Amino acid sequence: MGRANITWCALLLASFAAAGDAADGGGKRRDSHVQNEAGLAVRQPGPHDGEGTSTAYPFFDDAEDFRVVFRKRALHKGATIGLHTNDKDEIYYVLSGRGELTLEGEVSEVGPGDAILTRDGDSHGLRQLGDEDLVILVVFPKRPGDP
Questions:
Q1: What CATH number is given to the structural domain containing 56?
Q2: More confidently predicted of 22 and 92
Q3: Where is the signal peptide (predicted)?
Q4: What is the model's pTM?
Protein backbone atom coordinates (compact mmCIF):
# COMPACT_ATOMS: atom_id res chain seq x y z
CA MET A 1 0.00 0.00 0.00
CA GLY A 2 1.41 3.39 -0.98
CA ARG A 3 2.05 6.28 1.39
CA ALA A 4 -1.05 8.18 0.12
CA ASN A 5 -3.27 5.16 0.80
CA ILE A 6 -1.88 4.74 4.32
CA THR A 7 -2.36 8.46 5.04
CA TRP A 8 -5.94 8.35 3.74
CA CYS A 9 -6.74 5.33 5.91
CA ALA A 10 -5.19 6.92 9.00
CA LEU A 11 -7.24 10.11 8.55
CA LEU A 12 -10.42 8.13 8.01
CA LEU A 13 -9.92 6.02 11.12
CA ALA A 14 -9.00 9.08 13.18
CA SER A 15 -12.28 10.76 12.24
CA PHE A 16 -14.33 7.72 13.31
CA ALA A 17 -12.29 7.31 16.50
CA ALA A 18 -12.75 10.98 17.40
CA ALA A 19 -16.51 10.54 17.12
CA GLY A 20 -16.28 7.55 19.47
CA ASP A 21 -14.13 9.45 22.00
CA ALA A 22 -16.66 12.26 22.16
CA ALA A 23 -19.40 9.75 22.97
CA ASP A 24 -17.53 8.19 25.91
CA GLY A 25 -16.17 11.35 27.53
CA GLY A 26 -12.71 11.15 25.93
CA GLY A 27 -11.23 8.50 28.25
CA LYS A 28 -7.89 7.25 26.86
CA ARG A 29 -7.56 3.51 26.23
CA ARG A 30 -4.25 1.71 26.70
CA ASP A 31 -4.73 -1.29 24.36
CA SER A 32 -3.53 0.15 21.05
CA HIS A 33 -1.77 -2.44 18.88
CA VAL A 34 -0.68 -3.54 15.42
CA GLN A 35 -2.52 -6.34 13.67
CA ASN A 36 -1.25 -8.11 10.55
CA GLU A 37 -3.62 -9.60 7.98
CA ALA A 38 -1.70 -12.90 7.74
CA GLY A 39 -3.76 -14.67 10.42
CA LEU A 40 -7.06 -12.93 9.69
CA ALA A 41 -8.07 -14.23 6.24
CA VAL A 42 -11.60 -15.68 6.17
CA ARG A 43 -12.88 -17.16 2.89
CA GLN A 44 -16.56 -16.24 2.44
CA PRO A 45 -19.28 -16.02 -0.20
CA GLY A 46 -19.83 -12.57 -1.69
CA PRO A 47 -21.43 -10.39 1.02
CA HIS A 48 -25.11 -9.39 0.93
CA ASP A 49 -26.09 -12.52 -1.02
CA GLY A 50 -23.39 -11.80 -3.57
CA GLU A 51 -21.99 -14.26 -6.08
CA GLY A 52 -18.67 -16.10 -6.00
CA THR A 53 -16.11 -16.05 -3.23
CA SER A 54 -14.23 -13.38 -1.37
CA THR A 55 -11.64 -13.20 1.36
CA ALA A 56 -12.29 -10.91 4.33
CA TYR A 57 -9.64 -9.55 6.68
CA PRO A 58 -11.60 -8.33 9.76
CA PHE A 59 -9.08 -6.04 11.46
CA PHE A 60 -9.63 -5.25 15.15
CA ASP A 61 -12.90 -7.21 15.41
CA ASP A 62 -11.99 -8.23 18.97
CA ALA A 63 -10.90 -4.75 20.10
CA GLU A 64 -12.88 -3.73 23.17
CA ASP A 65 -15.09 -0.64 22.74
CA PHE A 66 -13.80 -0.01 19.19
CA ARG A 67 -16.64 1.67 17.32
CA VAL A 68 -15.34 1.17 13.77
CA VAL A 69 -15.52 -1.77 11.39
CA PHE A 70 -12.30 -1.73 9.36
CA ARG A 71 -12.04 -4.58 6.88
CA LYS A 72 -10.03 -5.46 3.82
CA ARG A 73 -11.93 -7.60 1.31
CA ALA A 74 -10.70 -9.32 -1.85
CA LEU A 75 -13.42 -10.12 -4.36
CA HIS A 76 -12.12 -13.04 -6.42
CA LYS A 77 -12.86 -13.59 -10.11
CA GLY A 78 -16.59 -13.12 -10.76
CA ALA A 79 -17.44 -12.28 -7.13
CA THR A 80 -19.92 -9.60 -6.11
CA ILE A 81 -21.14 -7.68 -3.14
CA GLY A 82 -24.87 -8.08 -3.69
CA LEU A 83 -27.08 -5.07 -4.30
CA HIS A 84 -28.38 -3.90 -0.91
CA THR A 85 -29.61 -0.82 0.94
CA ASN A 86 -27.39 0.60 3.66
CA ASP A 87 -28.54 1.04 7.24
CA LYS A 88 -25.52 3.29 7.95
CA ASP A 89 -22.90 5.39 6.14
CA GLU A 90 -20.11 3.27 4.64
CA ILE A 91 -16.89 3.82 2.68
CA TYR A 92 -15.19 1.51 0.18
CA TYR A 93 -11.66 2.34 -0.94
CA VAL A 94 -10.25 0.45 -3.95
CA LEU A 95 -6.68 -0.74 -3.45
CA SER A 96 -6.30 -2.86 -6.60
CA GLY A 97 -8.24 -4.49 -9.41
CA ARG A 98 -11.30 -3.21 -11.23
CA GLY A 99 -14.97 -3.29 -10.41
CA GLU A 100 -18.41 -2.35 -11.63
CA LEU A 101 -20.24 -0.27 -9.04
CA THR A 102 -24.00 0.12 -8.99
CA LEU A 103 -24.87 3.10 -6.79
CA GLU A 104 -28.46 4.28 -6.59
CA GLY A 105 -29.16 2.64 -9.96
CA GLU A 106 -26.20 4.22 -11.77
CA VAL A 107 -23.42 1.92 -13.02
CA SER A 108 -19.77 3.02 -13.22
CA GLU A 109 -16.35 1.41 -13.27
CA VAL A 110 -14.05 1.83 -10.26
CA GLY A 111 -10.36 1.11 -9.76
CA PRO A 112 -7.33 1.84 -7.59
CA GLY A 113 -7.54 5.15 -5.76
CA ASP A 114 -11.34 5.42 -5.97
CA ALA A 115 -13.16 6.07 -2.69
CA ILE A 116 -16.88 5.29 -2.63
CA LEU A 117 -19.18 6.88 -0.06
CA THR A 118 -22.54 5.19 0.36
CA ARG A 119 -24.99 6.90 2.69
CA ASP A 120 -27.58 5.49 5.03
CA GLY A 121 -30.57 4.52 2.87
CA ASP A 122 -28.64 4.30 -0.42
CA SER A 123 -28.49 1.11 -2.47
CA HIS A 124 -25.26 -0.23 -3.91
CA GLY A 125 -23.52 -3.35 -5.15
CA LEU A 126 -20.08 -4.13 -6.53
CA ARG A 127 -18.85 -6.68 -9.11
CA GLN A 128 -15.23 -7.73 -9.68
CA LEU A 129 -14.07 -7.32 -13.30
CA GLY A 130 -11.11 -8.83 -15.15
CA ASP A 131 -8.53 -11.36 -14.00
CA GLU A 132 -7.16 -9.52 -10.96
CA ASP A 133 -8.89 -9.66 -7.56
CA LEU A 134 -10.78 -6.49 -6.66
CA VAL A 135 -9.31 -5.51 -3.28
CA ILE A 136 -11.08 -2.90 -1.18
CA LEU A 137 -11.00 -1.44 2.30
CA VAL A 138 -14.41 -1.18 3.94
CA VAL A 139 -15.03 1.22 6.83
CA PHE A 140 -18.24 1.95 8.70
CA PRO A 141 -19.32 2.77 12.26
CA LYS A 142 -20.14 -0.18 14.47
CA ARG A 143 -23.49 0.20 16.15
CA PRO A 144 -24.18 -0.86 19.75
CA GLY A 145 -24.91 -4.58 19.81
CA ASP A 146 -23.03 -5.31 16.54
CA PRO A 147 -20.61 -8.24 16.87
A1: 2.60.120.10
A2: 92
A3: 1-19
A4: 0.81
